[in-house]
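Changelog excerpt

This revision adds worked examples to the README so contributors can see how folded entries look when concatenated. The first example is reproduced verbatim below.
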Amino acid sequence: MKMPPLRLQHGLLFAAVALLFFAWGAWLVRPPQPLPWLGEWQREVLAPLADDRLRLAGLSERVDGELWLRGARLFYRGQWQAGGEPWALEAELGLSEAERDSLLAAAGLDARAAEQPLGGQLVAELGQHAVVGLSLKPQHAVATERLAATLGQPRLRLELADGQAWVYPELGLTLHLDDERLRLLHAVPRQALQR
């Protein structure tokens, strides 16, 4: 059997190495994967919150949770999986002063009392109360490029003592980042960011 010329062997080896480097380079510059669930949440939860239309009933349909009383403030808390990643949610409910006083009296507490769980039984009764703030905290690292691929680039970037904040005023969103990872996503009605 006749062996191919030495130049042909070198040429084939060079082509194989070049192809490997090209494939590796293409893999390195691939676009970041967006967070598909965040786009859905943007439409169904975050946009209504930005427009000051989100109610506890709508939020509790998406995430099971329970109510907690912290001083004179009422929070809804839950845990869930989104895209295979665990998240923790905390949402503050808007209460009138009379509702706060009534709730504290019913629980036998005052405004300086330690945090108390109220359970899930009041969720249906308070379902029409407005959500005035919502925080999502990832339980695993979420890279900032995935957030940018989903939400776009922020209008404002602020340097903080312990990281950076990306602000999306039109969405009512602020993302708190540390070392290119999301620490906290905080959403409020749009007019709250414009004050």
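The second example, added in the same revision:
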Amino acid sequence: MNQIKKGVTVRFFSIEAKKSFVGNFVSIFIANKDAGASSRVINVRSKKHLIKLSEKLSVSTVAAYAVTVVRERNTWQAKATSDGKITGISTNQGIIGDPYFFLVVPGKKILLGFTSGPSGSLKSVGKTMLDQFNSNRADEIKLDLIPKDKEFSTLKELPEYSSLHFKINSASLSEISDDAPQLIKDLSLAPYIENNMQLSLDLQLNYAEDKTLTKENVIEIVNFLSEHEGCTVLKVKGVNKDGDRIHLDFGNAFVHYKTEINTRTKYIDESLSIGILKNALSEYLETS
């Protein structure tokens, strides 16, 4: 079988949590590994998640912990074989879904991750995974993409926006995560949009006349699309407090690591994923 060249994009998130989280994560990780309880299945919003503790690593003297998550994909409905038999899929022996590969760096309070599944769900799955190491659920854990430059902080500071422009392939909207912005959910369900169409939206914003998209909505959309591989263009125009027009381009505004691998299957195994994450972290530590 010929090898397939597959592109991989590793995303970097800052972890906002109480100071106690760092020590708790490490102790819980080690205790479960020592007890032979490296994996468990949990249910989150009607979807099963298998969380597997892989191994502890050292990258440039920095301790990092590899965790693999498989999130159930509910869209699988039937199995068809070459002899014409069509049957339902039995999940009694495990989970059928998409793998997510993470590297937790407690000392730096950062999370690295990538998936061969829907990229828009990486952040929510990462948060679900970290929540399992949170001994006090009242202390919420938050994840934010690590900005490469000042664009995102400037976006939050602008008193108003005048337009939002983005391009996205409709195929990447086939499965949208539960925490996606409502505008993106509406696009994914639109009956007039065909598969593999290049969608280009230019939304003119006027808060005095139209309250459909608030400032918080725009920030939420930019947050979501900036980490979505299907989005190729993402720009916002606005006016600062001095009345000057500002143009922000989020096409390359956040820290990421890109590489290509050769594989004979769609599945990326754990050992290969750990190598990718180690290289991503090493490059980040060298440049930060």
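Reviewer comment on example two: The chain has a mean pLDDT of 84. The CA atoms of residues 183 and 230 lie 16 Å apart.
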